[in-house]
Structure formats: C-alpha cells, structure tokens
Amino acid sequence: MMNSTSRLPNSEPDQLPREMIDLAKEIAKLPAEQQPGLEAAYNRVIETVNRRRRILSLVQEALSQLRLDIKYLMFDLEVTRRERDELKKGLEE
Predict the structure, then answer these.
(1) Do the beta carbons of residue 23 and residue 8 sit within 8 Å?
(2) So what's the pLDDT on residue 8?
C-alpha cells in the first residue's frame, strides 16, 4: 500500500495544491498493483510543481531587484539633471 510520506519527501502538505493532496489520497485507495505507475507520474508532477514554485520565486526576486535598481537609476538621473541645470545656470551668469 502507498503511504503519503514516501510520495511527499520534500513537500509539506500545506505547500501542495489541495487537488494534489486529494489525488494522493485517491491513489492510496487503489489496489497495490495499480499504484506504482500512478505514483511515479504523481512524483513527476510534484517535482514540476516545486520547480515552478522555485522559478516563480526567482522571478519575483528578480523583479523586486529590478524595481529597486530602477528607483536608484531614477534618483541618479534626477540628481544628474539638477547638476546639469546648475552648471548651465552658472555658465550663463
């Protein structure tokens, strides 16, 4: 018989979509001879879900860093414009 801990070694139940937890329970109800094939497919799906989460997390971090970089660039641009305007004003006087 299939147990949920062998299928979910790296995932806590609250990290998985509810549908995946329900599917694991349904697979566990199947006769033992039908479980291995479904268990393998289930594990591949879990790996894919976890990989996509990691990718999403990396993308979110990259976007946050990009936003911060843009703020710094906008600040630098504004300071540079002020300096330019002050220099122009100084040269005109």
Answers:
(1) no
(2) 44
